[in-house]
Amino acid sequence: MAKKSKKQQQPGGTPATVALTAAGVEFTVHSYDHDPSHPSYGEEAAEAMGVSPDRVFKTLVADIDGALTVAVVPVAGQLDLKALAAAVGGKRATMADPTLAERTTGYVRGGISPLGQRKKLPTVLDASASSHPTICVSAGRRGLEVELSPEDLATLTEAVLAPIGRA
Predict the structure, then answer these.
(1) pLDDT tens by residue, 124-161
(2) Whole-number Å distance between alpha carbons of 126 and 75
(3) Which runs of consecutive H residues, i.e. helices, occur in the chain?
(4) 3-class secondary structure, 89
(5) In the predicted model, is pLDDT for residue 73 greater than 80?
């Protein structure tokens, strides 16, 4: 597993790492060989990095009353759609169509990052993130994660913190 700090990050990178570098926040990139046969992108990332699954967060795109919204929850659990809708003042949430999520964010499924998206979407970060000094989220492609403070992630994505994950 290769680790790169923001100072060692190669020019260009992914839109997520470019956004982090431009913002001047500290982060670490973790890369690993993605196994297409693994049943869970997030669990694969946690295993490959040797990080507890409660510190690795997956980025999901939901449709809340006709508007796309990003949910960032631990890979160890699931997204509570009712809690997500309530967190943004909505009534009904469903998972977004994967093709629409990819087209809107500019990332492929399994590599959607909450950072550097093609179209900035409202974001909700599970409140459990604040119990960790750092968390890992997708850096914009399968096999690439970025580790940063939950406070920096919330600030950069203008996220609402709410209990949207469930075990």
Answers:
(1) 999 999 999 999 999 999 999 999 999 999 999 999 99
(2) 11
(3) 15-23, 41-49, 81-87, 98-105, 150-157
(4) coil
(5) yes
